[in-house]
Specification:
globular, 19 helices, about 475 residues
């Protein structure tokens, strides 16, 4: 598929290869998915005689659906899980996607840290007594697209599309109402007087949630009349300081800081822009643009136009338009087939590549739709979509489009590969490694999946690899964030 397999293929953790058995539906019922739910790694093969292949796009991927690394196997027969009560299940022949990164649970309740349950098709149920939001609805996938830069229209009679909620820390209303006085006092004591107690800084800050960070900084300022970030800058140094400040900014302000860092000065750090912007939900992109405007008093699209040019500029403006299909939008086979044929026509089927056609499709589809497109493309043309992109594109546009495909296919594997890229070869890319570890650690469940994906892909423990590439308090803070 999109990723070359590790040596020896993809054996399961328990020694068994994933089995593609298909369970027939009861008489008179259409199966909820033409792909059977894929077996978790390490699960025993299904019992009973082998079943015929599904009537869909080829065999299931070698990769598990998102959220399956290290998870216990499903019960015998792998029946599809029922949809959440009150929401109909989409009858799609394509595998389902994990909930958006960091999506909060339904009913507006925050469970214990790191336990955000998955949402069916990324849906976010409305609050009781409220109508579903209408202001950012997309047309059904495969319908007529709006002019470039225009807000997506709402066709007459189309069912409402539930917008993907912002990630934790990207909504100003998501604030933890907890007493942070103990943590604030411990941090002040660790930095007061001669010397610094780095172990206390690591212990207190490594597992703070995005909602707790603003409360902590406010409490620190109120109790000690000092800025927590300024004290860290004065008392710490090097990449240890860099990591602590990345935590204290919180995920949204850290994204804004990184974008400004990518755009300022001579040249543009496109890889940093990709880390922050590519594959994000519409809600997160809007939050980033608003926070950037408030922080720097500049428009983000205008700064991108001033720093980039030609088709690369156009691609990033498509991303910043925040016009992706929401994760609740259905995956329609006819629309997938149309996208597959259009991608082939714009790349392999002709001399020269229609680059903006490819960019337009991938920047406007949901993760679940991109996953289905990648699978269908490989089945139809016997070539992985990622390989096509690598042969038809080059440079920064190639990297961004590959990241879009990997985001749709498997976010945990995408991040595992990105982390390894920081450590392979001569020297460690410490600033990029710190940024990527910090971004992963905000979602505890996702961090666990990334560690499982890294082990599966590279045959090594991620934390052990980081320990081998770093040292001192810098090593300790990175390890603590992933433990």
């Amino acid at each position: 598929m999109s990723y070359p397999p590790p040596q020896g293929g993809y054996p399961g953790y328990g020694g068994h290869s994933p089995q593609p058995g298909y369970q027939q539906p009861p008489p008179g019922q259409y199966p909820p998915q033409a792909y059977p739910p894929q077996q978790a790694y390490g699960a025993p093969p299904p019992q009973g005689p082998p079943q015929g292949p599904p009537q869909g796009y080829g065999q299931p991927q070698a990769y598990p659906p998102q959220g399956q690394y290290g998870q216990p196997p499903q019960p015998h027969g792998y029946p599809p899980q029922p949809p959440p009560q009150g929401y109909p299940q989409h009858h799609s022949p394509y595998p389902q996607q994990q909930q958006p990164y960091g999506a909060p649970p339904p009913q507006g309740q925050f469970p214990p840290q790191g336990q955000y349950p998955p949402q069916q098709h990324g849906q976010y149920p409305p609050q009781p007594g409220q109508y579903p939001p209408q202001q950012h609805q997309q047309p059904p996938y495969g319908g007529p697209s709006a002019p470039y830069g225009a807000p997506p229209p709402q066709p007459y009679g189309a069912p409402p599309t539930m917008p993907t909620p912002p990630s934790p820390g990207y909504d100003p209303n998501q604030v933890a109402h907890v007493d942070m006085s103990g943590a604030a006092d411990a941090l002040r004591k660790a930095m007061k007087g001669f010397g610094t107690d780095e172990s206390t800084l690591i212990r207190v800050l490594a597992h703070m949630t995005p909602q707790e960070i603003p409360a902590l900084k406010q409490t620190y300022n109120q109790r000690h009349h000092r800025s927590l970030e300024s004290d860290v800058e004065n008392e710490c140094g090097g990449y240890f300081e860099f990591a602590l400040l990345a935590i204290l900014r919180g995920p949204l302000q850290q994204d804004v800081w990184c974008i400004n860092n990518a755009l300022k000065g001579a040249g543009t750090k496109e890889a940093l822009l990709d880390d922050i912007l590519v594959g994000r939900s519409n809600a997160d992109i809007r939050a980033i643009k608003t926070a950037y405007q408030q922080k720097y008093r500049r428009n983000l699209e205008a700064d991108v136009k001033a720093d980039l040019s030609a088709k690369t500029e156009r691609m990033y403006l498509m991303i910043l338009a925040a016009s992706r299909q929401e994760e609740s939008a259905p995956v329609l086979p006819q629309a997938v087939d149309a996208d597959v044929m259009e991608l082939h026509r714009a790349t392999e089927a002709k001399t020269g590549t229609e680059q903006l056609t490819v960019c337009s499709i991938l920047t406007n589809r949901s993760d679940g739709q991109i996953r289905a497109i990648a699978q269908a493309y490989e089945h139809k043309y016997r070539r992985a979509l990622e390989s096509v992109i690598r042969s038809e594109f080059a440079g920064h546009m190639e990297d961004a489009l590959v990241r879009m495909v990997r985001t749709g296919a498997d976010k945990a594997m995408r991040d595992a590969i990105s982390l390894d890229e920081c450590m392979k070869g001569p020297g460690t890319k410490d600033e990029r490694l710190t940024q990527r570890v910090t971004a992963v650690h905000w979602d505890r469940q996702h961090a666990a999946q990334v560690k499982g994906a890294y082990k599966h892909r590279f045959g090594k423990d991620l934390i052990s690899r980081i320990k081998g590439e770093t040292s001192g308090d810098y090593e300790k803070i990175l390890v603590a964030m992933l433990e």
